[in-house]
């Protein structure tokens, strides 16, 4: 309860001080050095790149032709979910350039073995099909479970990504 001697102080920002928003990083500066993490958010169709914990790039992505849910078996058109590592780099890809991830993992292989099917594999972050003219992009979710970005984007990502880089794929 407030008494007569209570001093009231304004709540909120000081009116004498300008309010500023946190600055968004400059996502147009070239990436210098290696990145340490790639975050893929399937629902948002976004791939976010981090270097030393800082956001350095965001790309719009395409996914497998049946994007909802986690990958279960070969041919299901789904993109796997979980935490992976880049385990190979392909500069002779059918999709400009590509970065492979270590799917399937042990639990995926066990589930598939127990279910009597193949878990699939060869999941990559890659560019556009080589037969498409430069500057064009396939519309919609069209891959067989991979993550696709533009060719100039995969060039930038390929140059900054090393074997062992973490890749997290969220629903």
What is the CATH topology classification name of the domain at 62-164?
L,D-transpeptidase catalytic domain-like
Would you identify the CATH architecture of the domain at 62-164? Answer: Beta Barrel
The separation of the N and C termini measures 49 Å
CATH class of the domain at 62-164, named Mainly Beta
Strand residues, percent? 25-35%
| Largest sheet, strands/sense/barrel | 8 strands, mixed
Can you describe this structure?
This protein has 171 residues and is an alpha+beta fold. The chain has a domain of 103 residues: Beta Barrel (L,D-transpeptidase catalytic domain-like). It is 12% helix and 27% strand. The protein has 2 helices and 8 strands; from the N terminus they run E-E-E-E-E-H-E-E-H-E. Strands 3-2-1-8-4-5-6-7 form an 8-stranded mixed β-sheet, covered by helices on one side. The longest helix has 10 residues. About 4% of the residues have low confidence.
């Amino acid at each position: 309860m407030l008494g007569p001697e209570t001093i009231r102080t304004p709540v909120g920002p000081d009116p004498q001080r300008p309010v500023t928003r946190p600055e968004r990083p400059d996502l147009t500066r070239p990436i210098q050095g290696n990145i340490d993490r790639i975050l893929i958010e399937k629902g948002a169709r976004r791939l976010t790149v981090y270097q030393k914990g800082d956001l350095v790039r965001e790309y719009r992505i395409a996914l497998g032709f049946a994007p909802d849910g986690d990958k279960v078996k070969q041919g299901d058109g789904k993109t796997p979910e979980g935490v992976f590592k880049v385990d190979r780099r392909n500069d002779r890809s059918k999709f400009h350039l590509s970065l492979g991830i270590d799917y399937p993992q042990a639990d995926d292989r066990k589930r598939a073995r127990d279910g009597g099917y193949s878990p699939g594999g060869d999941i990559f972050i890659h560019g556009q099909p080589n037969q498409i003219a430069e500057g064009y992009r396939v519309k919609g979710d069209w891959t067989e479970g991979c993550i696709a970005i533009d060719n100039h984007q995969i060039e930038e990502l390929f140059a900054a990504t090393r074997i062992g880089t973490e890749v997290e794929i969220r629903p």
